[in-house]
Amino acid sequence: MAIREIVKIEDPILRKKSREVTEFNQKLHTLLEDMFETMYKADGCGLAAPQIGLLRRVIVVDCGKGKIEMINPKILEMHGEIGGVEGCLSVPGKHGHVMRAEKIKVEFYTRSGEKKVKVYREFEARALQHEIDHLDGILYIDRATKEFDD
Ligand code: CO
Among 22, 89, 133, 143, which residue is least crowded by beta carbons within 10 Å? Predict the structure, then answer.
């Protein structure tokens, strides 16, 4: 396992669209382990592959309720709307107020290539929407209604 460097807001890679993963191999498993390690080290609760300079549709989240890892995630349904504060490891020193769906249904693949559909709520739903946005080159600051420095 290894800590990867987190790219910052100035890096144009954060604005690019990530490609789907087609091979569920050891390289992917190593990537997931590295992403978790990098996220925990940086004290974050979510990380998307483009944030470590890799344009692949892979995200990890841990909002204190356990590890979530998703390959090729797709939001199938969004319900409700709720405001909350978000930050991003690629946008250091800032936070912003963002409206998100309160509950989402997500389709994704596991590291072994198994397709799953799950429902997430509250913090996990917010973190997942934030990370899935990263896969399409969208940052939370694009959606924030209010921004403030830490
Ligand atoms: Co982020």
Answer: 22
